[in-house]
Design a protein that fits this description.
The chain is of the alpha/beta class and 342 residues long. The protein is 28% helix and 19% strand. It contains 10 helices and 17 strands. The strands form 4 sheets. The chain has a 9-stranded mixed sheet with strand order 3-2-1-4-10-7-11-9-8, sandwiched between helices. Strands 13-14-16-17 form a 4-stranded antiparallel sheet, with no helix packed on it. Strands 5-12 form a two-stranded antiparallel ribbon. A hairpin with a 5-residue loop joins strand 8 and strand 9.
Amino acid sequence: MDTYPKITFAILSWNRFHYLKATLESALACLQYPNMEWMVSDNESDEPGLAEYLDAHPRLDRVLRKKQTHADAMNELIQVAQGEYIFIWPEDVQFVVKGDWLEDLVEIMEANPDIGSVGVDGQRRSTLNGYFRPSRVHQVQWAARDLKAFRKVRTLRTLQSKRGLKLFTLGGAAPGVCGSGIPTLTRTSLWRELGGWKTGKATGGLIDSSLGAEDQMVETFYRSGRPLQMGHLYRPVAADIVTDTLGCKAKVRGPYRFGDYMPPPEGTFYYRIQEASAFEGRGEAQPLSFSDITEPMGFTLPKDAAGDRLKFSFNSSIVHHIAEGRTLEHPLRDPDVVSRIT
């Protein structure tokens, strides 16, 4: 590339220090791009060591500390970001592929203004099958939704950079921007034009950390009338940090952390980081899945009989009180815990 638009990498952090460190250090190692801004928005975490780590980090351009909702934190990030593009990134997704692939991704997005958000994280094989081999019912539903919103039908297509990086678009299977905002690369101006995230009625109980903002953003996108498409890499470069045997990530709600949360067994990272060249020739006929790109270090990922990663939303049987540093013996007998679940 002759010019390198600035990219802001902005992490959302809240009381998951081990995840945060693996995420930030892997991003610094893997994103080999010459024009980056690095930020962390921390929700006033009180997990031991986390604040000190951020204060001492030599590569961070900005650390924002404020007790606020997930949606408000994302809105603040898109307002202060100096990059033309922004990664809004949760602290529970680690990069696993290093190289200059980000240059190619920006090249594709610059040449295709109808691309909204691009996901770079590995998807489960069952999710990919839903995109590439949808049922007839789903195809009709997607077409009807597109015709109502855009008066045209968005179709899945493949795009490629000059050096061969490939991504596929989701057509009518999804909105053109990621409703949750994470973990994707998106034009900063697009988030601002859409007006940011607005909290409303939470639709998923304690599972919905966005308090309804994700659904609100999806509605905003379709009302905008802009037939943008969301993209995903054929060879993804990042993976969800899954440390719970049920197939879910440890999640924070109020003073509690739910699920099996552990430090990386073998150092800083949960998964081995590989060169982009390790995946050459793979992910050509069909995209690589989460299981194709991850090599856990010192632990075993939960998978089904077909080798697809198990996925579960929330584990309420393991609850840790963060500030007090203790695991609750009978969490479902604790009225405060139960109130946050129900």
